[in-house]
Amino acid sequence: MKKLKVKKGAECMACLACAVACSEAFYKVSDPSKACLQIVEKKGAVKPVVCPQCGKCATVCEAGAITQNAKGVYMINKKKCTGCGKCAEVCPFGVLVKAEDSPASKCIACGICAKACPMDVLEVVES
């Protein structure tokens, strides 16, 4: 299974380079709120929150727009997506994005964010 992961022991400096790279890739705008990962402060440390490919989004998609590919990544078929936002509501990690007037988007483990991170905090792995 292909996943985006936070490297153990890596320290995020909250520069948002990863979030900006993601939002530019998906929405062609520099807006961290539209990124498929979030940077949060938890117990005094700043950490990226990434999609673990749990599939909860797929279970609530009435249109059948979210399916798992051969590498284990849940993908959204933008042509099938009705834009209802139920997938974003059910995401336990808050990393599935439902921007206004757009289909939903989620991490596809493409690695754009990992390449943009100057602290080398993120990595795409096969598990």
From TrEMBL:
Keywords: 4Fe-4S, Iron, Iron-sulfur, Metal-binding. Residues 2-32, 42-71, 72-101, 104-127 form the 4Fe-4S ferredoxin-type domain. It comes from the Bacteria. Pfam families: Fer4, Fer4_7. The keyword Iron applies. The keyword DNA-binding does not apply. GO terms for molecular function: 4 iron, 4 sulfur cluster binding; metal ion binding. This is 4Fe-4S binding protein.
